[in-house]
Amino acid sequence: MKLRKGSPIVVAALALVMSGCLATTSQLEALRNDVLQQRAEADANDSIRAVQLVQILTTLRTATDSMAWTASTVLSSGLKSRP
Predict the structure, then answer these.
(1) Which of 2, 15, 30, 79 has the fewest CB atoms found within 10 Å of its own CB?
(2) What is the pLDDT of residue 7?
């Protein structure tokens, strides 16, 4: 592929360089630190959600067991009271 004067690739490269869209090393490092911080925060939030989910499931299991016990108690007492 020959690059000739005015080709789209050359024009795009010149536009990029002339527009100042190149980041410095310190800017890239700052961006990297921001991304790492966001990942750490997301990991912490995921851990909190996991603990909350375990708590919800434990409560749900307790409620289900209580309802099952209540139902069996009501059913067994109802059967005994019939003549």
Answers:
(1) 2
(2) 72
**Residue 73 lies in domain:** 47-83
Rounded Cα distance, 47 and 13, in Å: 44
Backbone angles phi, psi at 36, to 5 degrees: -60, -40
Residue 21: inside a domain, yes or no?
Answer: no
Task: Tell me if 23 sits within 8 A of 31, measured CB to CB.
Answer: yes
User: DSSP assignment, residue 24?
Assistant: P
The CA distance from 34 to 14, in Å, is: 29
Residue 51: inside a domain: yes
Structural domains of the chain, count: 1
10 or 41, higher pLDDT: 41
The pLDDT tens digits for 21-42 are 677 899 889 999 999 999 999 9
Q: What's the confidence (pLDDT) of residue 5?
A: 57
Residue-level length of the chain = 83
